[in-house]
Amino acid sequence: MPSLCNLLRLAFPLIAGAFAQASPFTKYTISAPGISASFIPYGARITNLYVNDKDGNSQDVVLGYDNGTQYLHDTETVHTYFGPVVGRYANRIKNGTFTVEGVTSHIPENEHNGEDTLHGGIVGYDQRNWTVVSHNATTITFSLLDQAFEGFPGTIITYATYTVSPNQWTSRLVSIPLDEPTPIMLANHVYWNLGAFVDPEATTVLNDSLHMPYATRAIKIDSIEVPTGGLEIVNGTFLDFTSPMQMGHNISNAHQCGYNCTGYDNAFILDRPRYSAPEATDLSVLTMSSNATGIQLDIRTNQQSLQIYSCNNMNGTIPVKASQQHGSTTTYVEKYGCVVIETQQWIDGINYPEWGQDQYQIYTVDSEPAVVFAQYDFSIVAS
Fold it and tell me: How many C-beta neighbours within 10 Å does residue 147 have?
């Protein structure tokens, strides 16, 4: 009987052929009551996400571009990573090097003058043209056959399935190794502004409320944002969002986001309650809301870490989308004009076996698939 791996290898060209003529910048939209989301195959990327505000108006709460080809230009210039799946290994790898089962791999370093690898290397999943394998009114699935891209060991196939239901978006990233043991850590790299730039207050996220009740620890990083191997307790520090807090409340003291940086770009560890489980999805691990629109976001995930980036490097040169232009003059993405929330495992955990992350980051042909589940629920802040 053919193995599952061989069946997947045989099936992929047939699946891919069904949509072979589609442009990687073609927009696909799925909708349900209170929500509408659009995606393009280039990076299996979300481009728009409309939800209702406190006045019943539909607001686009993710950043991006109006034209799909603008994402390619972005990749070739500023490379913001607006909205894609990042991988094969999200976030940073120290020196671009790791060892799995005695075999050392070196991935091209693409950040900090060759000192680390970011989001999978020079050509990560965000730059790949994914294949649409299924699409209907409420769900879409993309696939990507990764044949040792960027020097990662072995071949894997990944499916990204996005589904909407009333006031909810669900993302499922499922990766299956087909031959060799390999690290896998994917993430959705979505830039959020729940205020949707509706007024001057909403042009930054500084007044937005952020609550991560189980983010009691963070991973220590060096000046190029690579883990040192240390962990820290957030209680009483600028990293403490275990109670609801405005994002800008303590941001002037937030200097652990790289060299000469003020803001957040930190990996928070999710220490779920005693009677929960490390990968439990029944609890909201993050709640964020905007006073400007009244929109509230709750996130549930099976991942054990959240990377929070407060758009420290934005500088007012990228205009927001037409759907987010609300005034008589053009609005641009300013510093702190957005926040990225990556649901993932512990950053660079493959290089720190003492953290006990191997079972969540290294996969083989006879292991369970790598699954990243994230559910985004939208509501209106209670008055």
Answer: 11
Buried residues in 237-256 as b, exposed as e (16+ CB within 10 A): ebbbbbeebebbeebeebeb
Q: Report which of 121, 153, 113, 92 is spatially closest to residue 351, judged by C-alpha positions.
A: 92
* Structure-token pair, residue 201: 């207050």
User: Which residues are designated catalytic?
Assistant: 189, 342
CA atoms within 13 A on the CB side of 59: 27
Burial (0-12, 13-18, 19+ Cβ within 10 Å), 332? middle
DSSP 25-59: T--EEEEETTEEEEEETBTTEEEEEEEE-TTS-EE
Which residues of 44-181 form beta strands (DSSP E)? Answer: 45-52, 58-60, 85-86, 92-94, 97-100, 103-106, 116-118, 131-135, 139-147, 155-165, 168-177
The two structure tokens encoding residue 98: 């790791």
Q: What's the predicted TM-score (pTM) here?
A: 0.94
Integer Cα distance of 45 and 162 in angstroms: 10
pLDDT single digits (tens) 169-199: 999 999 999 999 999 999 999 999 999 999 9
Q: Which residues contact 357 (CB under 8 A, 6 or more apart)?
A: 345, 346, 349, 350
CA dihedral defined by 212, 216, 222, 226, rounded to 10 degrees? -70
d(CA 342, CA 359) in angstroms, rounded, equals 20
pLDDT digits (tens, 9 = 90+) for 356-383: 999 999 999 999 999 999 999 999 998 7
Residue 331: CB atoms within 10 A of its CB come to 19
Query: Using CA atoms, how far apart are residues 30 and 11, in angstroms rounded to an integer?
Result: 25
Give me the phi and psi of 119, to 5 degrees please.
Answer: 55, 40
